[in-house]
Design goal:
By secondary structure, this protein is α/β, with parallel strands linked by helices. The protein folds into two domains: 134 residues, 3-Layer(aba) Sandwich (Rossmann fold); 231 residues, paralog of FGE (formylglycine-generating enzyme). It is built from ten helices and 17 strands. β1, α1 and β2 form a beta-alpha-beta unit. The longest helix has 27 residues. The radius of gyration is 29 Å and the shape is globular. The protein starts with 5 loop residues before the first strand and ends with a strand.
């Protein structure tokens, strides 16, 4: 059999995080394959798609763990793969390569096979070593380079420059001070004698461009009869504004075209051109403090849980005020945005805000860097404070569009169409709403700007939050 290129991953739901990571790394090495949550579309027959995936794969990878050994789905898929592999007409396809995600007793029917040990896979070095066995022995492709080792910065070297004599310091500093004082006094007298009397139109306070995430409303200055009316300038890319009542900073995304979609998963195809009018997007994900303001105003309902993944007290705990709110469903997110005079972003708005107009894969560029986001590859293991990864900002200065929490999208899920579209809003109805951005528990592939996640609008979870958009 020539070098195989297609894989099929069987896993229990308890091992989904490992399965996603393995799938991402195999695809990053130029391989293609089947992972149920990414390969089965809504409305398709699950058993039929699984059987087709097994029949067309070259390498079958059962992910073994105590949970997988109890799963009837895993048991069924292993049976099919074994049966297919015994068919001589198939030339030993699929080749079965078990991997151990968590220590367990290997099933008797697989004990004659050499397996790959991935236990303690969250250790990046151990994971990379095991992955390289899969890549080189299972697929005949180049091994993944080991993770970079941290090298501490060099210690500062003391300067060898000779110091001034001790008596020269006070004399020199004092002399310079006298000279500067004379210059400043002379300049002030000259300015006073030659400057005209200021008029009311010349004495205008400059607006502050500094915003905070405080839920307290910003004071609005009251115009006086002597003020010259101000003309609001046309918004430009990079502009920041805040709007009552939540006063959260928003960044402008200018009007224009961009390429939407990717050649990754089938539901991201085809890449197509979209024109969007200009819009504002929240610079940060909606925080616990901001959402609490809406709750206290009687407009929003409380999150379904007040905890996070690792914290028993989260929403309502001032320690986490500037962390993203979680456990809110699509309707709760929509209600908040409407209360704030905004709306949930459309899928096209969200994707343009995240990747700009140059077709980049992540907000910062095409190369994944685990240090630029809160994800499973090197994050916090739970939510992080919003804006904690400023170097991972999008081209428009918007934070955390990759990682931290998945974000609700206004649109229903639907397939993409080819051709140029203008301000698309998705299907008029459906069964699943969209989420984008990946979360702290997702892998690098889920953190891509084009990745489309689906969920029923009534679902709420510890990895799901949102942000809002607004028309100029």
């Amino acid at each position: 059999m020539p070098n195989p290129t297609r894989f099929f991953i069987t896993h229990s739901w308890n091992d989904i995080e490992f399965a996603r990571k393995l799938c991402d790394d195999l695809r990053a090495s130029g391989l293609d394959g089947f992972l149920d949550e990414r390969s089965i579309r809504p409305g398709e027959s699950i058993p039929s798609r699984i059987e087709h995936g097994l029949e067309t794969c070259d390498v079958y990878i059962p992910v073994l763990s105590p949970a997988a050994l109890k799963s009837p789905w895993c048991d069924w898929e292993i049976d099919i793969a074994i049966t297919l592999g015994r068919d001589r007409a198939r030339n030993e396809r699929p080749h079965i390569m078990p991997v151990i995600a968590e220590k367990c007793q290997v099933p008797a029917r697989l004990r004659h096979l050499l397996y790959v040990e991935f236990s303690d896979w969250r250790d990046e070095t151990r994971y990379t070593n095991a992955l390289n066995v899969v890549l080189t022995k299972g697929f005949g492709v180049r091994a993944k380079p080991p993770p970079p080792m941290y090298a501490p910065p060099p210690e500062a070297v003391a300067s060898n420059t000779a110091s001034f004599p001790n008596w020269l310091g006070p004399v020199g500093v004092g002399g310079i001070g006298v000279v500067l004082l004379c210059i400043l006094v002379g300049f002030g007298v000259y300015s006073f004698l030659n400057s005209p009397t200021p008029t009311p139109t010349q004495v205008v306070a400059r607006p502050s461009n500094t915003f905070t995430l405080s839920a307290t409303a910003m004071p609005i200055p009251t115009a006086t009869p002597t003020e010259t009316p101000r003309v609001t300038p046309t918004p430009r890319a990079g502009d920041t504004r805040a709007f009552a009542p939540d006063n959260s900073p928003m960044m402008l995304v200018p009007a224009g075209e961009f390429a939407m979609g990717s050649n990754g998963y089938d539901n991201e195809k085809p890449i197509h051109t979209v024109y969007l009018d200009a819009f504002w997007m929240d610079k940060y994900e909606v925080t616990n403090a901001l959402y609490a303001t809406c709750v206290n105003a009687g407009k929003c309902s409380r999150p379904s849980e007040t905890k996070s993944y690792t914290r028993s007290s989260y929403f309502g705990n001032t320690q986490f005020d500037n962390y993203p709110v979680v456990y809110v469903d699509w309707n709760q997110a929509k209600t908040y945005c409407e209360w704030a005079g905004k709306q949930l972003p459309t899928e096209a708005q969200w994707e343009k805000a995240a990747r700009g107009t140059d077709g980049r894969i992540y907000p910062w560029g095409d190369a994944f860097d685990k240090n630029l986001l809160n994800s499973a590859d090197g994050g916090k293991g739970d939510t992080a404070q919003v804006g904690a990864y400023p170097s991972g900002a999008s081209p428009y200065g918007i934070m955390d569009l990759s990682g931290n929490v998945l974000e609700w999208i206004a649109d229903w899920y639907g397939s993409y169409s080819s051709g140029t579209q203008r301000n698309p809003t998705g299907p008029s109805s459906g069964s699943s709403r969209l989420l984008h951005g990946g979360a702290w528990g997702n892998s690098r592939y889920d953190a891509r700007a084009a990745t489309r996640h689906l969920s029923e609008p009534t679902n709420s979870d510890y990895v799901v939050g949102f942000r809002c958009a607004r028309s100029p």
